[in-house]
Amino acid sequence: MRAVMPPFDSSFGEIDAASASTSQGASAAGQADTCLAVSARPLRDERGAIRGGVIAFRDINERKRNQALMEAQASELARAKERAEQESRYKSQFLANMSHEFRTPLNAIIGFSELLDEQTMGPLNERQKEFVGYVMQGGKHLLALINDILDLSKVEAGRMQLSSEWVSAEQLVEDVRQTVRPLADKQSIMLSFKVAEGLPRFFADPMRLKQILYNLISNGIKFNHRHGKVSVEVQEQEGALRMDIADSGIGIREEDLARLFREFERIEHRGPKPEGTGLGLALTKRLVELHNGTIQVSSNPVWAPPSP
User: pTM for this structure?
Assistant: First the structure.
């Protein structure tokens, strides 16, 4: 039995000490250790002299057990968190190393298939040209996946370095517009761009910012219906650059919004399944956050796309 005694008058303390030693003797005889909270108060006469005292014992075993359990759980959670972070670092390191190993032969495959497709080494019949197109398309799709994995692993490992400079919003939007135009034309999607006049230059990584804008616009195109629309509006808001991308596509159900920025998540929807790695929006969110920005989404799902 353990008794913790508060400071006291010396004369009254003798009473407490005697009680405590009696209890400890019982514990030493083989009984279970008991933890008590002790409170004591002297009883004084009208002249202030101590005539007696009151001692109260309260069993706090349950409280101590709960406290020990909480400390053990907190310690286990801390160890689990450390293990998870270490595993995440190992995973990111592995993905980064393997991605580099994959990219070199893939670039060769894509390069030679493009040479064959251009018939530089001689003419191809229609069947051969079709097969070469499959090789080239598959290689580019796999390369895009590996590039996204590499970028994401760099962000997770804290090795993604931004090369920031003063950027023109007008030029940035124009560069991305030229890049996404063929993708939009393929699906007869109308693109609309609106950039506020007089926007100041802002400090950011132009390549990563183009990647962010391209991912958001191409996502709006891929999950749209033919003859749909994607609109882009860029403006300044409280000293920051704000980009709003809206599309007339099928939308996302409210219960699926939380999954939108997770790695390798492909939200089910009606209609043909578009190409994609399931990493574009997850990577986009990380890149936005690297710029100390935020990304938000809202949607009004329409499960029956209008007729063209």
Answer: 0.59
CA–CA separation, 163 vs 203, rounded Å?
Answer: 10
CB 193 within 8 A of CB 158: no
- The amino acid at 285: K
State both tokens at 86. 């270490």
More confident residue, 17 or 114: 114
**Other beta carbons within 10 Å of 92:** 20
Token representation of residue 144: 């895009």
CA 272/CA 264 separation, integer angstroms: 18
In whole angstroms, what is the distance from residue 186 CA to residue 183 CA?
5
How far, in Å, CA of 193 to CA of 230, rounded? 9
DSSP state of 157: T
pLDDT, tens only, 187-242:
899 999 999 998 999 899 999 999 999 989 998 898 888 899 999 999 998 888 99
